[in-house]
Amino acid sequence: MLFFSRSNLLEESCVQAIKGPPALTRTMQTKRNTTLTWQSFGIALVLLLSKNTLAVSPVRAYLTENRLEDAVGACRQVEVLGTSDVDSVLACAWVYYRTDRIAAAEKILERVKRKSNLPEYQLLIALGKMKAKDYGEAKKILDNVTNENRGTATGLSAQELQGENYEMQGQLSTAAFLYKQVIGDDPKRARSQWGLARYHLSQGDTNRAARELETVALLWPKHVASRFDLAVLAISQDNLKDGAKWLMDCYRLNRADPGVLEQMGILFEKKGQISEAVRYWQKTLDLKKDSPIAKEKMAHYAIQVIDNLMEAGKLAEALVQLKKPEIADQPGMALRRGIVYRTMGQYEKAAVDLRAALVTKPGDPRASRELGVCYVNLKLLSQAANSFRKAVQGDPDNAINHAWLAWVYESQRDWTQARQEWQRTIEVATDPVALQRASRRLASVEKQLGDGKGSRKRKGMDMGVAGEKPESEDEE
């Protein structure tokens, strides 16, 4: 039951109406009887809504705890049932204004327009003016209500709303002054506590802000925003224990809040649990694709995650990450995709990504060399030679660049150029294995030049070209 009544008889009627007549569960009744049964159900609910109650109505209870989205559901029932109960209608008008459902608020207020002289009705009209940015008219209304209701809860509500009116205009000090006055008269005014907390945050006074926020969290047990701010404050001060506590409160209340998920990622980042952090940032982007922090963090840590997968030889998993929309177009990702495809032997796909990488970063020696390797395996030696020459120009002290270019020259029977590149390889090589291989190839090339047999095709050449290929992986 959503509403309570003093009348036991009324309550019993409603329960009976919900259950339906016993005979209805046993056999089909006549259309007339069925219609009467549902009529009694509707009448009972309307009576429940219209009777004065001993308990606070659910909408008022939700308002007290600032559970506005829960209250919206109850207000929809009020609308459907068509009740003109003044208290329920006014409560729903607050809910609709507070959730920026302006048209719904104005529409439901029309039902009780005859009560426009009520102070609460006037407060709602003032809030409507504030939402319409008619702050001057709102101030006039609120001043009148305050003057006519000094020393009462209504007067405090008007003063509190006036604080919001000033805050919406950017007059934060005046707003804070009014919030303090309201709290002085009634410390349980959570909305004023919340407003004062916002003021302290804007001034960088985190200690006072934290005190106000803790009071708000106590008075509003399901308020996500105050807990979120407490979590952010704690995490910024490296108080990870309290940060985790407040974030878990937020997460329990709303598992689909992008801001909460984003901060969960930051919390795990500070704890050094990067895989967990990435998981929450991914959830954030699933809900809010333009989240700047999550995008930045994913781009940063995606590189680390992907590079670890590539280093471990988990190429398929790395490729899944590299194809994600939020990562695919980030700087450096086309190059990594190209390397993964090349390592997997998918040279045409690799070439597409590597050419794209060179468009965004022309002359990149790594991309040029990787593209050259693809061309070699696609038997496009002229293109391969061009790519390796660009790699050498971009990084002349990298032995692997010279080794690949020397290898292509050998394949093209250009022994003079091959000798020059193998000599250069030996000059800059630091790896003993690479140095030994280059020395062996240089001796072979010099033999070709000494014998004058530069055009002879030698036995055992890979793909009909020069001998053993250089290593594909960068040793940097």
Described by the principal axes of the CA atoms, the overall outline is elongated
By CATH, the architecture of the domain at 187-249 is named Alpha Horseshoe
Low-confidence stretches: 1-55, 454-465
- Element string (H = helix, E = strand): HHHHHHHHHHHHHHHHHHHHHHHHHHH
- Whole-number mean pLDDT: 84
As a percent range, the share of helical residues equals: over 70%
Radius of gyration (CA) equals: 37 Å
- The number of helical elements comes to 27
Biggest sheet layout? none
- Category by helix and strand content: mainly alpha
According to DSSP, the number of beta strands is 0
CATH class of the domain at 187-249: Mainly Alpha
CATH topology of the domain at 187-249: Serine Threonine Protein Phosphatase 5, Tetratricopeptide repeat
Separation of the first and last Cα atoms: 71 Å
